[in-house]
Design a protein that fits this description.
By secondary structure, this protein is mainly alpha-helical. Helix content is about 60%, strand content about 5%. It contains 8 helices and 3 strands. It has a 3-stranded mixed β-sheet with strand order 1-3-2. A hairpin with a 6-residue loop joins strand 2 and strand 3. Helix 1 packs across helix 2 and helix 3 runs antiparallel to helix 4. The longest helix is centred in the N-terminal third of the chain and has 49 residues. The chain is flat and about 105 Å long.
Amino acid sequence: MRLELQDDHLSTLQSMKDNAQTLLTKKCKERQKHKFDLLLAKSNKEDLHECTDKWVINHSSRQLNSIEKKALSKGLNFTPAAKSIPIPRIVAAVETGLRKVPSSEAELARINIIGALTKAKPPPSNITIEEYRAIKDLKKDNSILILPADKGKATVILDKAEYHQKILSMLSDDKTYKKLKRDPALALERKMNSLLLSLKRAGSLPDALYYHLRS
């Protein structure tokens, strides 16, 4: 056959063969990738369902959708990343802390902090727009309470009315609880401040610690 065909014909046939083999390999890879993506999506969906069921316990009458469950599964200590650097708040906090620092050290600290704030950039977002909206919607719902579980790190959602009813039922137990005539917090606060002042005057308590502890 090689003798009967010209070289250009052989080259064309070889090129057609190579193209067909490349196309077949590409289709096979795409088919395998599609199968893998389907399995991965199914696995992620099952993992998410298991995760939300483990960390989100809904005892309320509100039906939570998947986005709300995913947002709540982040935990009550989760804080969305700031969209901008809160420079005024940082400066105010720094100035409060520098009041008890020598002026030379305070000025140096201000220079360093201003330099850091000038270069600072907001962190990347750690929450989707849908999850952010879900958190806002849950916050607006006055019929529910979102609380940490007594044990573990799960988040519990309860009906507010039912929760308050249980609290009142517990407080009505006269054998366990006693109603006070007045709030003892103010009297305890005065005693504590008086004790701290006595320790400061006696030289047993440094000024910085005294001002930190007193209310």
